[in-house]
Write a structure and sequence with these properties.
By secondary structure, this protein is an alpha+beta fold. The chain has a single domain, classed as Nucleoid-associated protein YbaB-like domain (Ybab, Chain: A), CATH 3.30.1310.10. It is built from 3 helices and 3 strands. Strand 1 and strand 2 form a beta hairpin. Belongs to the YbaB/EbfC family.
């Protein structure tokens, strides 16, 4: 039985780590948007699951309950889109070697 080449394994791990760092930088630049109430509330998040922008139509500000519901819905839609985008980017970079859901959890995503 041949012994595994640990030098090659370490090199592959280092390369994978470098790829993942590149992916994390890319994810910060990718933006996903979610909206609710026919566009009355819009949320933008990046691929690292950080809320970047929230806009609310001033005409709905009188109805606090509706605004709260729409904000939650818009942010959740944006986060879902962002998580899918991040998973796709990680899969591309990993070439199928890493489970993207596990990696997202390590970097604070929903996974």
């Amino acid at each position: 039985m041949a012994m595994p080449n640990f030098g090659d394994m370490m090199k592959q791990l280092q390369e994978a780590g470098a790829k993942m760092q590149d992916v994390q930088k890319q994810l910060e630049k990718l933006v996903s948007e979610g909206e609710a109430g026919g566009g009355m509330v819009k949320a933008k998040v990046n691929g690292r699951q950080k809320l970047l922008e929230l806009s609310i139509d001033p005409e709905i500000m009188d109805d606090v309950d509706m605004v709260q519901d729409l904000v939650v819905a818009a942010v959740n839609k944006a986060l879902d889109a962002s998580a899918q985008l991040a998973q796709n980017e990680i899969q591309k970079a990993a070439g199928g070697m890493i489970n993207p859901a596990d990696l997202l959890k390590q970097f604070g995503g929903q996974g």
